[in-house]
From TrEMBL:
A Pfam family reported for this protein in Swiss-Prot or TrEMBL: Acetyltransf_9
Gene3D superfamilies: 3.40.630.30
Domain N-acetyltransferase residue range list: 3-144
Gene Ontology MF terms in the entry: acyltransferase activity, transferring groups other than amino-acyl groups
Domain of life of the native organism: Bacteria
Name recorded for this polypeptide: GNAT family N-acetyltransferase
Matches recorded under InterPro entries: Acyl_CoA_acyltransferase, GNAT_dom
Xref: PROSITE patterns: GNAT
Length: 277
C-alpha cells in the first residue's frame, strides 16, 4: 500500500483518477481535468494497492475567517474507494494520512449516515444555516446560457467574485458542476455577471455568482427576481455581495462536519474567507 499525491499532468495518473471517479460517482471528469481549473487548486491524495488506484480524496487548502481572525484550514472532498477494495479500511487509512498533511482546522460535507465513519477521525457534525434576503422588485431579465457560452463571456482565471470558491485560484465549485453537465440553471445577467439559480416553491435558490468585477447585490437581486420567488436563499455566505441577509432555519441535505478549533456553526464559521461577517 502506497499513499502519495497524484500528478494530474501525468497521463496515466490522470486517467486512473478519472476512471475511479467515474466508477464511484458516475462522473466524467474529462472537461474538468483539462479545463485549467486545477492549476494551483486542490491536491489529490491517492492510495495505490496492487498497482491500482484504490482510493483517493482531495485536499483544498484555504484561509477561513473565524470570529474575524484569518486562519489556515482545509476542505476534504471527493473521498472515494473503488468497490473492489472496500471493506478493508483503506478509506480510513487514507483519511488519517490526509489529517497529517492538513492544518488542524478541517471541514467536509457528507451525508448524515457517514457521521460515524468521520467521527472516528475526530470530525463532529456542525450546524448549517440558511441565509435569506428579500428580492428587490424585478429589473432586467436573466438569459439562460450554457457552460461553454459562460466561458466565452467570463475567464474563470480572472473572476474576482464568487460565492463558493476563489475562482482566481481554484475555479468555481458550481462551475465544475456546470462543466460536468450536472446543472442547467445557469443565467447571464445584464449586469455582466453569471448566476447559478433556481426557483422552487416561492424561493429563489442562489447557488453561485460569478463576475470579473464587483456587482452590488441590489443589482443582481433585481435581475434574478425575474426568475420568480419572494426571497433569495443563499447556498453560500454572501458577504462579498454586500447583501443584508438573515440566518434562518437549518439546511437539509448534506451535513457539514468539522475537525479542530472550528466553531460549531454558521455564520461564525465563514466559508471561505470573505473579509467580514
Amino acid at each position: 500500500m502506497d499513499i502519495a499525491f497524484l500528478n494530474l499532468e501525468d497521463t496515466a495518473q490522470a486517467d486512473a483518477y478519472r476512471a475511479l471517479t467515474r466508477e464511484v460517482f458516475g462522473l466524467d471528469l474529462s472537461a474538468w481535468l483539462t479545463g485549467g481549473f486545477w492549476r494551483g487548486g486542490p491536491r489529490i491524495l491517492g492510495l495505490m494497492e496492487g498497482g491500482r488506484l484504490a482510493a483517493s480524496l482531495t485536499i483544498a487548502d484555504m484561509t477561513l475567517v473565524l470570529r474575524g481572525r484569518a486562519r489556515p484550514a482545509a476542505q476534504i472532498g471527493t473521498v472515494q474507494v473503488a468497490p473492489a477494495f472496500r471493506g478493508r479500511g483503506l478509506g480510513t487509512k487514507l483519511l488519517a494520512r490526509a489529517m497529517d498533511l492538513c492544518p488542524p482546522d478541517v471541514f467536509l460535507f457528507a451525508r448524515a449516515p457517514l457521521a460515524a465513519f468521520y467521527g472516528r477521525l475526530g470530525f463532529q457534525g456542525a450546524v448549517q444555516s440558511v441565509m435569506r434576503a428579500p428580492l428587490p422588485p424585478p429589473a432586467g431579465k436573466p438569459v439562460p446560457i450554457t457552460a461553454p457560452q459562460l466561458y466565452g463571456k467570463l475567464d474563470p482565471a480572472r473572476c474576482v467574485e464568487s460565492g463558493v470558491l476563489d475562482v482566481r485560484r481554484e475555479g468555481s465549485f458550481y462551475g465544475a458542476n456546470l462543466v460536468l453537465g450536472r446543472r442547467h440553471d445557469l443565467y447571464w445577467l445584464p449586469a455582466g455577471c453569471a448566476a447559478v439559480a433556481r426557483e422552487e416553491g416561492g424561493e429563489l435558490h442562489v447557488f453561485d455568482l460569478l463576475a470579473q468585477s464587483p456587482v452590488p447585490w441590489e443589482t443582481v437581486g433585481a435581475q434574478l427576481a425575474a426568475l420568480g420567488g419572494r426571497e433569495a436563499v443563499f447556498h453560500f455566505t454572501p458577504d462579498r455581495w454586500l447583501s443584508e441577509y438573515a440566518v434562518a432555519d437549518l439546511w437539509r441535505g448534506e451535513r457539514l462536519f468539522t475537525r479542530g478549533g472550528f466553531l460549531r456553526g454558521l455564520p461564525e464559521f465563514c466559508y471561505p474567507a470573505l473579509g467580514r461577517v
